[in-house]
Amino acid sequence: MVSGNGCAHVYFSASSDGQMPAELVERLLMLPGVGLGAYRDDGGAVLVARGRLRARVREDAAGVSYEPLVGDPLGLGPLPLTLPDRELLEASRATQFPDAPRQLLQLLSCARSGDLVLAADPGVDFRGPWELPAHRSGHGSLFAEHMLVPIAASVPLPDAALRTVDLMPTMLETLGAPVPDGLDGLPFSRLATLEGALA
Fold first, then answer.
1. pTM of the model as a whole
2. What is the average pLDDT score of the chain?
3. What one-character DSSP code corresponds to residue 32?
4. Residues 6+ apart with CB under 8 A from 129
């Protein structure tokens, strides 16, 4: 199932032992044009693959952990690290895959997500040749070209990494409307700002 032309979800029927076919998964991860792959492991973590590089991402009370297993597929460094969510967002901002640990954890926690999620390399389109006009990986991948969004605002922007999901609670708060509980994102007033507002 293509999700945005730069992402594909692959679903496997459950085998007798409940495992994905390892050889097929490896072949899919190594296909030309596949920039990144991710899938759940038995312990509830997400395994991230870029070519032959592998890392594990998980979340617990201490924050989001990134554990390189073979190389460093997300470019966060060769050593394991655990950071609070927003600090990891900041640390990943200058990488090729900004916010990928959080995005992959959220994506693969969804019941509708594929067993294996593939992100296309820049310029690669997972949709068929019928798409007019051809987008050439125009959206849906985890590369910086798809993840970094310019923001212009009439309110001061925080001196902190932002997510697009921070815009809705910020707009509601700015308009004096209540911000519903459980909404993704944080209003700018709760992020570190140039004026030193609450962190």
1. 0.83
2. 84
3. T
4. none
